[in-house]
Amino acid sequence: MIVEVATLEQIMKELKIIQSEIEIELSEDIQQAIDRGNYCSAMLARTGKLLADAKIHKDRKLNSEVVTNLKKIIALPATTGNKFIDSLCHDENYIVNWCERVNRSCTHQLDWCRTLISKAKAEMQAFNPQ
Asked: Exposed, middle or buried by CB within 10 Å (0-12, 13-18, 19+), for 117?
């Protein structure tokens, strides 16, 4: 199975769009909660894919940079070497971290939407007993 990997530019572009959407404050309007829940559900899947793509880019850069800088890395103490290696992939690390945060934000917002919908359902049942 061949899966197309998004470029770093494509990942950043999508993250900006998703980030701006999830920064919109959610009211307690149930229809808005349902709409946001649907959006966040879809974005959970999408940000998961973006995260996987970002990690592929990071791994590729890491492999390339380690080979290029192997003599420098070997001369350093282990903890310093690890920090040096991380610094070689700072852009990729940033995108991976951003993907993780946006994915987690979608998860939290989806939980909040479920809470609002459950609250509305309980209120409706309390005021309209059958």
From this structure: middle
